[in-house]
Each structure stands twice: as C-alpha cells, then as structure tokens.
Amino acid sequence: MKITHYSDIEPTAFDGDAVKGVKGRVAIGKNDGAKNFCMRIFEVEPKGYSPRHTHEWEHEILFFSGNGEVFSEGKWIPVSNGTTAFIPGNEEHQIRNSGNETLRFACMIPSGPPEL
After folding, report:
1. What domains are there in the chain, each with its CATH number?
2. Smallest Cα–Cα separation from 21: which of 76, 98, 83?
3. pTM above 0.85?
4. Which terminus of the chain is more exposed, N or C, with fewer CB under 10 A?
C-alpha cells in the first residue's frame, strides 16, 4: 500500500514550444505495483498549456484546483474545481490554464503508455 500527499512527489517540469508551465507527478504507477492504471497529478501555471496531441489510450481527469479549458472537437470547454473529463483514445486534446492561479488535476491512464 502507498499513501502519500502528491506534493511530496518530485515533479517533472515540461516547458518548450508545444508545452508551457506544466509539472507532472506519477502519484501511483508501475513502480508502486499498479498493474492496471497510472494516476498522474499535473499542475499548469497561469497562461500555461499542455501540448495539443492525440494517442490511442483514454484519459479520465478530475480537476481539483484553478480554472482552465480543455480543447475537444475543435472548441475550448471551461473546467474548474470538481469538473471531470473523459477523453477517448485518438481524440485531439489540450489543456490550458485560463485563470490566475495554478490549475491542478488528476489524470488516470491505463498501464502500458508512458507514465509521464
């Protein structure tokens, strides 16, 4: 069993042309013995964004702090504390922070794809 606060996990920072102001943490993954899923926690700084991309696996997301938007089917959909999102495999998507505070969310993926 593993019980920890996500902020105690060392983050990986992502910053470049396609991604800005994003930190990711593997909260529960293969190194913890999780055989079916991986839970990641992401923080997106104000004016930050994830890359716009597609892949074959799905995401289940819970936004728990801040305000943002998810790009889906050609439009931006607002998200905030308590919003959930299901992103099917092979759907183009992107997440961006539209607020003045850090956007935080938990993201579940199946085991197999890269954890971060």
Report:
1. 6-110 (2.60.120.10)
2. 98
3. yes
4. N
